[in-house]
Give the backbone structure.
Amino acid sequence: MANITKKVSWSSRTDESGAAGEGTPLLNGSEQPKLSRQDSLRGRPKEIPHNEKLLSLKYESLDYDNIENQLFLEEERRMSYMGFRCLEISRWVVCGLIGFLTGLIACMIDIVVEELAGIKYQVVKWNIEKFTEVGGLSISLILWAVLNSVFVMMGAIVVAFFEPIAAGSGIPQIKCYLNGVKIPRVVRLKTLVVKVFGVICSVVGGLAVGKEGPMIHSGAVVAAGVSQGRSTSLKRDFKIFEYFRRDTEKRDFVSAGAAAGVSAAFGAPVGGVLFSLEEGASFWNQMLTWRIFFASMISTFTLNFFLSIYHNNPGDLSNPGLINFGRFETDSVTYNLYEIPLFIAMGAIGGLLGALFNVLNYWLTIFRIRYVHRPCLQVMEAMLVAAVTATVSFTMIYFSNDCQPLGPEHTEEYPLQLFCADGEYNSMATAFFNTPERSVRSLFHNQPGSYNPLTLGLFTLTYFFLACWTYGLAVSAGVFIPSLLIGAAWGRLCGILLASITSTGSIWADPGKYALIGAAAQLGGIVRMTLSLTVIMVEATGNVTYGLPIMLVLMTSKIVGDYFVEGLYDIHIKLQSVPFLHWEAPATSHWLTAREVMSSPVTCLNRIEKVGTIVDVLSNTSTNHNGFPVVVQVAGSDEPAKLCGLILRSQLIVLLKHKVFVELARSRLTQRKLQLKDFRDAYPRFPPIQSIHVSQDERECMMDLTEFMNATPYTVPMETSLPRVFKLFRALGLRHLVVVDDENRVVGLVTRKDLARYHLGKHGLEELQLAQT
Amino acid sequence: MANITKKVSWSSRTDESGAAGEGTPLLNGSEQPKLSRQDSLRGRPKEIPHNEKLLSLKYESLDYDNIENQLFLEEERRMSYMGFRCLEISRWVVCGLIGFLTGLIACMIDIVVEELAGIKYQVVKWNIEKFTEVGGLSISLILWAVLNSVFVMMGAIVVAFFEPIAAGSGIPQIKCYLNGVKIPRVVRLKTLVVKVFGVICSVVGGLAVGKEGPMIHSGAVVAAGVSQGRSTSLKRDFKIFEYFRRDTEKRDFVSAGAAAGVSAAFGAPVGGVLFSLEEGASFWNQMLTWRIFFASMISTFTLNFFLSIYHNNPGDLSNPGLINFGRFETDSVTYNLYEIPLFIAMGAIGGLLGALFNVLNYWLTIFRIRYVHRPCLQVMEAMLVAAVTATVSFTMIYFSNDCQPLGPEHTEEYPLQLFCADGEYNSMATAFFNTPERSVRSLFHNQPGSYNPLTLGLFTLTYFFLACWTYGLAVSAGVFIPSLLIGAAWGRLCGILLASITSTGSIWADPGKYALIGAAAQLGGIVRMTLSLTVIMVEATGNVTYGLPIMLVLMTSKIVGDYFVEGLYDIHIKLQSVPFLHWEAPATSHWLTAREVMSSPVTCLNRIEKVGTIVDVLSNTSTNHNGFPVVVQVAGSDEPAKLCGLILRSQLIVLLKHKVFVELARSRLTQRKLQLKDFRDAYPRFPPIQSIHVSQDERECMMDLTEFMNATPYTVPMETSLPRVFKLFRALGLRHLVVVDDENRVVGLVTRKDLARYHLGKHGLEELQLAQT
């Protein structure tokens, strides 16, 4: 949720941090969007200009390719076989820790939410019961709405004022991170704290949200923190895991963290691994995958174990995830061959409803980006939604006449008699007056006949709009559970209708089964995940039998939904203008070659370069390059310079900071010996160039880059086709790819934005514009 | 099994097919193994020289990198967006077909085995019962042994004489194929037919084998056949799917086929996908994975559906795989926290036993390679094993006094009263007198107390040695089920012993649960698969609860086993000297650079080259290069030639065959226009150079390679470290990587063998020798 906040905040904050764009000259600078600003003139809140056909230059890439400079190679060569074994063992230890801590956080969230929500519902229920007798139910309504708003307000305040990146589920941000885009502050400790507090508030506040999505983000933050062996926020450095202080290793651990989060959220360790791979892995590595799986397993086990203690049943490992679909027995709810077309039809409905959800949310997000970008406005909107949710729920329960007899099988914690006769319970209330997780479970497992079709229809309708409105608020919360809930409701409705159409006696259309299929269809229609979602659903039901129908349903809903609009996460990523790389180059891009794609001319540095030149190049804010090819001129020849390496802005910054200069004038080498440790200590928050003072004398010194540059950067000739460049770039997780001519001279540089620019639109291949939004 | 056969046959046949080694000059030619051949002088069977420290040059690589020459690019550029959509849809159709056919084959094997084994056991049982009364049981024994031997003989004859590559489970071969090594004849129709017939014979013949492993190979063959839209063996070309006639596409489909095979064998679609990824994927692609999953799902569904018809219960989809572990109910067999150390201990036992199994089988295989390489000897050995298996089984059953009362829950198809009193059944016979699949299920699910500890101990011991002897015979059969059976037996034994050590009344140590853990431990100890095996086991039990213990057990058994010896499949791959690329370069290889690794000097061709030169280069049997850098000389300059492309032997062969010559003498261009279709028609069985006649006149002609060469081959500078080269090579599935100097001149060529040569031995980094074995 609350990707507008991210929009506003991401762009405003990156300016401060001095983070700079990729090494791409702003070719299209003159074509920057000229959106009308007249709205702000009329006294309306200042509108943030926005254009979808842009690609922001604000986002840096991660360097998944190791910087193999002399320092690195020397270290690797010094290391013995035992040293590598120890590293491998510490990787496993880190993954175990990630899993353990993620599970612990999930457990804490679950317990706090259960306790607080329990108290809230008890208070409201007691109040309603009191006033049902004496009249004056409006007081109960107000009580409920105020309680909700207070919780939501607390959640929204921390998010909007302290850490806007913690808004929403965090899944789009983690997708971007795993794709190789550095999203500022996304894996910081502060973000985690705000996220956890925020998600508790928004779930307890009764919003139409879930606590599962945020677990994925939380896991990722845990991973980024643990693997670095230090916390910059807390200013503590434990001096461990220093080897892992680079993008390559960190990104691997973040994959494990995200998987552990999925695993804890849904009790789906395999699904977690597949999620990480689906979103992140450009390069599949067996050992890495196995470690990710380990983290996932530890995470679900930790959660399970502590929840079993909380439920006074230690050792009973039956709560593998935050959401528990309950047990689907194979006997009772097996499916028949002739039901498969029905499932596929439901998948199509899910795709349609999902597309509708996404389109509505898209418009809403555009509106929010334009008009609701001030933190206080965001908090007020969140409170409004909370109050409206409570009011709608109350009204629905009040006017519902779906009273069901309270059977012996009915073991709800709060028997919801609300407005019903004694010995009966209000069926609408099982859906509204409950945490969403419990409502989903009830829809899956309550006896046939527990719900009136009208109840389900009304519930679907209202909850659909509430959830759509809620996603994008400045609160920490996920969209998985609301989607499941909407789908389960209309799925169950389908089951009931099918059963009533055909022979009356038979219960072939078990409503619980159809609720499950509906839930899958709706979720698939909204988020459009494929393999991992199938596995997550299968693992959450704990029953492999449903594999094929769930897969068919998810496929159908994806195909139908993709016809209209992209998935919800992709929409929000696009609205942020993130340079996201898909799996393959657009199909019809073979006519493009590196020559057209690359940025040129490129700012190159000499192998031994004047400090003043380096400072000037780095300070040039109009280009903000991040990577510089290093060239060498053959002495005494007028031949053009040849490529001999590649150096990053961050490395140059460290070199300047440590004054690694050669004073040629005195003809002696005073170049300080830098070590890898100096670079690792500075990682990942390299200071901006403005903060480094270089005196006029120092500007005249030279700097020898030989030892620090990556001497063997990947190169391609100019004639290489775009798909080929794309594949190399994506498979190796590159950040800069040097384009050379047949004499090995630098002619251009390909970066992430140069590739992400091209995409398949409705009129064939389209090219996005680059801008410093 | 029967990897010796492969050894002999792979090397002998590749000579005929003219398949040549990689473009690696035989640097170490002079160091070819000088193994003593004196054995043959003494009249013993001719010994095949064998040395593990060799890497065979016989194996070609697959070209996972697209050959982006002008023809290809022109075709891609001509293709519209709709064209690409149609291609995508046909990929899905092919995957669906692969799944369907694989499921159908699995179903056929299952039904035939069930029927034949049923008849066999009925005959033997009837015979034993007859002779138990009148005496003369030796006749029964002989009948049983002869029946078994006849079946096994048939299976062994087809394998040994017609298609030796069909021996064994085929998993090592498929691993190699997915790794990028072309194994001759591994995906041919004939192989499939022999495989299916062979596996039926060996399972019915009562060998200690399973029919699951061969399904993976069968699925791969189906995939390779269907995706090409033609059968060379049947000489039918359906003129469809011509676009898929290249290594890149074919390998993707073979991944899907292998996954479909796993899925049909174990009812584990997700496990199948993970198997393919674990073994094959160098580059993870979301759409590809999704298609693989689709094939897997269709495969298990097809099997399930047809088996339900066979079992007269259409629509009851409860047989997702060939092996059915039966239902593990969560209630009855949940585990407790304090059992986890026990599971880990069992994992260690599994690792030890697995290592023992592998070591014994390794010695046996060496023995077989040396002395049992003639087909008739192989058939005789297989028959001997069959007879011994029957004899041992008979003896065990005869001397067993483990008679159990026949309870009402006992629903075996053949109530095995053998040698027991009326109303009782012979417990040893449930293990021996049954197909292995049924025996596994009985061990998992029979009531506590069904087996006597002595019975289980004896069974484990005998079956261990029988299975070890059997793996490697010239029959089609897998090692999964025997491993599971051994493990289940000693696992159940552990469970019984644990229960008897502790309090008598409690059944906390449910023997079925321990049987499952033992089975996982033993299988893990032998094959050492990790993630995919965990998921396969979880899916086969249909219960997610066991995820963590199974994973811990598999991890332990892998770690313990790896301490002693590699996994069984890896041993057999190594014994074949296959240039197998692991996931990463050896850890301590940073001191090596492309300069040391590459082969040089390289045979280069000019862009416009004399036909005679090309023919001579291709005919040079001492080098047998497969890829040639194409260079261009600047006209009128004496500068060294620069790299401008790369061309393959197979392409040159097609060009020569079609006489694509330029007759310079007559100063007119007669170069025929070749199309991609000509290359696709020739794929994958390109004729040897010897079969192409080039006249003396034609030798004087020139050939223009510009249009056909890959104009943008990947290159690396000489200083690139081995890990970096390795990563590039592995991630992109390359076959040739050109090493250039800083002037873009060719200095060397890195191929698969140059990288596979380096491995971590006991004394650090070791280098294997290359040889034309």
Notes: Residues 1-48 of chain A have pLDDT under 50 and may be disordered.
